[in-house]
Specification:
four-stranded antiparallel β-sheet; 1 helix; 4 strands; single chain; alpha+beta; about 70 residues
């Protein structure tokens, strides 16, 4: 299907274990970018204007987000 978005998962996502697989996926659309839960790809994605999503991502600290 040529019109299907290409979803990309973070390279930090593991295949299981502590924190592994707890990840989001990102896809680009003509006027927006979207994020979704990689464990539930059939659920709705959140769409944002691409510049807004990039600005938000740039504010995230470069730290480990695993749960305590």
């Amino acid at each position: 299907m040529a019109n299907q978005p290409r979803w990309r998962k973070s390279t930090y996502s593991g295949g299981g274990g502590q924190g592994g697989g707890d990840c989001v996926e990102l896809a680009h659309f003509p006027t927006t970018s979207a994020i979704r839960d990689s464990k539930s790809p059939h659920t709705p994605a959140l769409h944002f204007p691409t510049p807004t999503l990039i600005a938000w991502i740039s504010t995230l600290p470069k730290t480990d987000f695993t749960r305590p």
